[in-house]
Design a protein that fits this description.
Layout (H helix, E strand, L loop, with lengths): L14 E4 L5 H12 L3 E6 L14 H7 L3 E3 L5 H15 L4 E4 L15 H28 L7 E5 L12 H21 L5 E7 L5 H9 L20 H12 L10 E4 L6
C-alpha cells in the first residue's frame, strides 16, 4: 500500500514494569529496554531485609537505573498493584511485566536453614512472581486487541539442578518455571504470552552471596561449571529478556529459555 505524501507513521511506545530493578539482571533489563525505546517503570524494595545476611539493592542504586522508579516489595501485592497503576496512569497502559526480583539464602543443610531465611527466599523468588502476575496480567489484558503483552520471569538453572544447601532457592525457581507454563496455558489466544529465562552463573550480587555461602574465594570460582568457562554478564541475560518482551517473540509462550553458558548440557 502506497503512503500518501508527507504522511508519517508513528511507532507506539511500549511500556514495561521490571521488578528487582536496582541491580543485577533487573537493572540490566531496564537499561536494555530503555535502549530499545521502551518506557520503563523500575521497581525495587530498595532496602535491606533483616532476615537476610547480605545487603540488598538501595534506593540510590535504583535511581541510577531509570528516570521513573517505584519503591515496592514484591511480597506486598498492594504495593505492586500501585506500581502497575502508576505505569498505566503515566503512559496509558502496560505491555510487559518482568519479574526479576530475587534473593538467596542457605549455606547449610535444608533442615538447618532458619525459617525466616527460607520464607524470604520462597516469598520473594516465587511469591513475588505470583504477586506480579496477579496485578500485571489484568493490566496487560486491558490493552485493546490485537494485543502483544508479555509476562516474563527470571528462573534459574537451579530450577533443574539440585544445588546442595540451596534447597529453598531451587524449589522457588522450579516453581517459577511451573507457574510460567501454567500461565501460558491460561492466557491462550489472548495475545499475552508468558515466558521465562533460566540463567546460569551470572555476575550479580546473588552469585557473590552464593560464593560466600559455599566458602569460595569469590564468584569467579563458579565459572568452571559452565562450558563457556566464564561467568555471564547480566546484560547477556537482559538481552534475551528484551527480545522476549518484543513482538518478535510472538510465537513463544510457556518457554523457559536457558541463558546459562551451556550449564544445563
Amino acid at each position: 500500500m502506497r503512503r500518501k505524501p508527507g504522511r508519517r507513521v508513528h511507532a507506539v511506545t511500549r511500556v514495561a514494569l521490571v521488578t528487582g530493578a536496582a541491580r543485577g539482571i533487573g537493572a540490566a533489563t531496564v537499561r536494555a529496554l530503555i535502549a530499545q525505546g521502551w518506557e520503563v517503570l523500575a521497581v525495587d524494595r530498595a532496602k535491606d531485609d533483616p532476615a537476610l545476611p547480605y545487603p540488598l539493592g538501595t534506593e540510590s542504586e535504583l535511581s541510577t537505573v531509570a528516570t521513573h522508579t517505584f519503591v515496592a516489595d514484591v511480597r506486598d501485592p498492594g504495593a505492586l498493584a500501585a506500581a502497575v497503576a502508576e505505569a498505566e496512569s503515566r503512559w496509558g497502559g502496560l505491555d510487559a511485566a518482568i519479574a526479576a526480583a530475587g534473593v538467596i539464602a542457605g549455606g547449610v543443610p535444608t533442615w538447618e536453614v532458619t525459617p525466616e531465611q527460607e520464607q524470604a527466599v520462597l516469598d520473594v523468588n516465587l511469591g513475588g512472581v505470583l504477586n506480579l502476575a496477579r496485578v500485571a496480567v489484568p493490566a496487560l489484558l486491558r490493552r485493546p486487541e490485537p494485543r502483544s503483552g508479555r509476562f516474563l520471569a527470571v528462573a534459574s538453572a537451579a530450577a533443574t539442578r539440585g544445588l546442595p544447601m540451596l534447597a529453598a532457592y531451587c524449589a522457588a525457581k522450579a516453581g517459577v518455571t511451573g507457574l510460567v507454563r501454567a500461565l501460558a496455558a491460561e492466557l491462550g489466544d489472548t495475545g499475552v504470552t508468558a515466558n521465562a529465562v533460566s540463567p546460569g552463573s551470572t555476575d550479580t550480587p546473588i552469585l557473590a552471596e552464593s560464593a560466600r555461602l559455599y566458602d569460595l574465594a569469590g564468584p569467579a570460582d563458579f565459572a568452571a561449571q559452565q562450558p563457556v568457562r566464564r561467568l555471564l554478564a547480566p546484560a547477556e541475560v537482559a538481552d534475551v529478556l528484551a527480545f522476549l518482551a518484543g513482538r518478535g517473540s510472538s510465537g513463544m509462550t510457556g518457554a523457559v529459555v536457558p541463558v546459562d553458558g551451556g550449564m544445563a548440557l
